[in-house]
Design goal:
By secondary structure, the chain is an all-alpha fold. It has one domain. The protein contains four helices and no strands. Helix 2 packs across helix 3 and helix 2 packs across helix 4.
Length: about 100
C-alpha cells in the first residue's frame, strides 16, 4: 500500500479556515508552530514568491524563516502575515 504525506495546505480553502488554523497553531504551539502554519497558508495560496516580495525578504529567506528550523524575527512574522492579508491582534486572555 502506498502512503502519501499529509499536506494541510490542500485543505485551507477560505479565510475562516485559514484564521482557525492559525489561531489553533497559536493556542497549541505558540510562535514556532505559527511560523510553520504561516508557511502552510502561503503554500495554500500558491503565493510564496509574492509573499516573500511583499514581506521584503527573498523567497529562499521566506522558506527558511517558515521552516521547522527557522527563527524569523517578529518583524518578519508581521510582514509575512500582512503580505498574506492577515493581521496580528492581542486580546485579553480568558482564564
Amino acid at each position: 500500500m502506498e502512503t502519501h504525506e499529509f499536506d494541510i495546505s490542500m485543505f485551507l480553502r477560505d479565510e475562516q479556515e485559514i484564521a482557525g488554523y492559525l489561531n489553533a497553531a497559536m493556542e497549541e504551539g505558540g510562535s514556532h508552530l505559527v511560523q510553520v502554519a504561516l508557511g502552510d497558508v502561503a503554500k495554500a495560496r500558491r503565493r510564496m514568491r509574492q509573499t516573500a516580495e511583499d514581506a521584503g525578504i527573498t523567497r529562499a529567506g521566506l522558506y527558511r524563516a517558515l521552516s521547522a528550523d527557522g527563527n524569523p524575527s517578529y518583524e518578519n512574522i508581521v510582514n509575512i502575515a500582512k503580505s498574506l492579508g492577515l493581521e496580528l491582534k492581542f486580546v485579553p486572555a480568558h482564564h
